[in-house]
Amino acid sequence: MNNLGDVLRELGDLAGARACFERALKIDEAAYGPNHPNVAIYINNLGLVLKELGDLAGARAYYEWALKIDEAAYGPNHPTVAIRINNLGDVLRELGDLAGARAQYQRALRIFRELFGDDHPDTKTVKNNLTSLSN
């Protein structure tokens, strides 16, 4: 269901993608419980779709939810946590909370730099996101 949701999202069928991610979320919540990292994947993906649908407040809530699960599962300095933090920064930027976005991007950048160095693609992505706040 998640993979189909990804394909539908790429094709622009956001309603179909949302339905697939919601179904995947229900399946994995039932199988693993509500605080499993697999569940956070679908929650994050729902955040992506909500953001693309223009529901920025909803996207923010889903990103924060996924981040909470992943921080509990992996700790505060894991690459998956940094991805969730970056996503939260993106939606905060779109909501106009530039200070909040900056704080999230800086945190994600610190994690990626410590884990992968400055030349890693994930580090560069977050660095570009942070730089975009100055433009």
Rg over alpha carbons:
15 Å
Number of strand segments: 0
Number of helices: 7
Q: Mean pLDDT score, rounded?
A: 97
- Order of secondary-structure elements: HHHHHHH
End-to-end separation in angstroms reads 38 Å
Which shape, going by the Cα principal axes?
A: globular
Tell me what portion of residues adopts beta-strand conformation: under 5%
Q: What class, by secondary structure content?
A: mainly alpha
Helix content: over 70%
List keywords for this structure.
135 residues; mainly alpha; single chain
Any overview of this molecule?
- With 135 residues, the chain is mainly alpha-helical.
- It has 7 helices and no strands.
- It has helices at residues 2-11, 14-32, 37-53, 56-74, 79-95, 98-116, 121-132.
- Helix 1 (2-11) runs antiparallel to helix 2, helix 4 (56-74) packs antiparallel against helix 5 and helix 6 (98-116) runs antiparallel to helix 7 (121-132).
- It is globular, with a radius of gyration of 15 Å.
- The relative contact order is 0.10.
- The mean pLDDT is 97.
How do you describe this structure in short?
The chain is mainly alpha-helical and 135 residues long. Helices cover 84% and strands 0% of the residues.
Secondary-structure blueprint:
Layout: H1 2-11, H2 14-32, H3 37-53, H4 56-74, H5 79-95, H6 98-116, H7 121-132
